[in-house]
Amino acid sequence: MTRLSSLDSVARLVAAAPREICRGVGFERAMLSHIRGDRLAFASVSFEADPIMAADFARLARAVRPRLDRCAPEHEAVVRQMPVLVRDTQKASGLFRPLTHVARTTSYVIAPIVRDGHTVGLLHADHFGTDRGLDELDRELLWTFATGIGWAMDDIAGRGLRRAAQDGDDAVADDPSAQARMAGTELDGELSGAPGRLASMTARELEVLRLMSDGASNAAIGQALVISQATVKSHVRHILRKLGAANRTEAVSLFLATGRRAA
């Protein structure tokens, strides 16, 4: 949580959170989604054991945007603002089957991200690919992490407000709801493919990034673009630097979150 709170934008927090959940809490896979009206909107995912599966799931999750009334456990987590443990996806009712089918999960945990009394997002996590079952401790750990993410979002947005005040933006600094609006605007703006990160990339770097989002290896990217692996590695380094990403997984999460995959 210290690492997430130290980030300079909510967008980077959203991109990095699933990876930190896996590394810090011990889950194999994790996903963060926003609540957009009555729908779930995918934001980021981490599954370092199988980036191709993670990319496939991310594309489907972004495309379908399921309604909460078709996702009973998620709807419960949003409304009650409490974590939910789904133990057996084959027998559980009210699940959104397209996503559970692609995820091939047998059980998972959901935890709400709450800010100012409103559920703004959900965390999903499981122990996919292991013999370890999920239990109440996993549920409580993910909920604790989700609570920390809400606090981190507040902290980042608060720093943005302080910067606005220092810059003389009294209209923002004096507005009691500005913190929430600022965080939401920052997130939507940074993840929409706006100026800066994606706009600063060359056409070839975007091609490499799209292939990375498909889970392609450096060798596969080189074959597809008819370039050497050394050149691919150079492009990947430039992509990570321009996105401010720590690794390929974070870069792909940021890219998928922009909605630019089909560009």
How would you describe this protein?
- This protein has 263 residues and is of the alpha+beta class.
- It has twelve helices and five strands.
- A hairpin with a 2-residue loop joins strand 4 (108-115) and strand 5 (118-126).
- The longest helix has 31 residues, at 136-166.
SSE blueprint and pairings:
Blueprint: H1 2-5, H2 10-25, E1 29-36, E2 39-46, H3 51-64, H4 72-80, E3 84-86, H5 97-103, E4 108-115, E5 118-126, H6 136-166, H7 170-173, H8 178-190, H9 203-213, H10 218-225, H11 229-243, H12 248-257
Antiparallel strand pairs: 1-2, 1-5, 3-4, 4-5
Jot down its keywords:
Arc Repressor Mutant, subunit A, 2 domains, alpha+beta
Shape: globular
Number of continuous helical runs: 12
**CATH-scheme architecture of the largest domain:** 2-Layer Sandwich
Average pLDDT figure: 80
